[in-house]
Give the backbone structure.
Amino acid sequence: MRLDKLLVHSGFGSRKDVKQMLKKKMVMVDNKIVKKADVQVDPNKAEIYVNGERLVYLSSVYLMLHKPPGHVSATVDNRHPTVIDLVPKELNHYDLAPVGRLDKDTEGLLILTNDGQLNHRLTSPKHDVFKTYYATIDGHVEDAHIKQFEDGVTLDDGYRTKPARLTIITAGEHSEIEIAISEGKFHQVKRMFEAIDMKVTYLKRTSMGDLQLDPNIPMGQTRMLTDAEISYLKNV
């Protein structure tokens, strides 16, 4: 990879900025000052320092976010804060995007990445990656609803959902449930319960496939996915 391209990708500024750094002898590769922008380097093997700071090369970034309510699942929004606003500043230049979406008032597990292929794979309905949610319901959820959700629910626009896995945690006037769905229609969980004359009053995504929301991540914070977690998502 060209040295200037690598430095731009790693967040050290524009190509013009990088050329100035090279000209000012601020870049060292394997203990040698380098001034030429077109020098070829292997970012996985070379030791590169910029103004004394060691370059850590990341071709792709995978973050787990504990999404808080109030943020929209978008990269840009003119009215509301986005989940990208919660990304650590040192990772801002990686052009991360949310994998799928959580409603503005929904919290929980959200993956952010610049790996477009993985993003597509995890959000494509044909791959049947189930997302599990915990919810509180204004209404009495009963065993009969389990079969109803398993058969698919017809939404307000006539769309019939794919089979959903409904588990009743506590029943009553204000039920607690878990629901797993393999698609992500707009406000889908809320609309599924509206279809049976009930209202979702709280919603939190707890897992994507077997990947669980890390309970040690404070709301609004992120952490890098582990190699094992990344491998799982790529093969789910």
